[in-house]
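Extended Data, record ATP-dependent DNA helicase pif1
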Amino acid sequence: YFISEWIEHTCFDTIFL
């Protein structure tokens, strides 16, 4: 599953937002 990578990218986007 590549969900972990998606979650990591999402978390990063949220933090940077």
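Summary. The radius of gyration is 8 Å.
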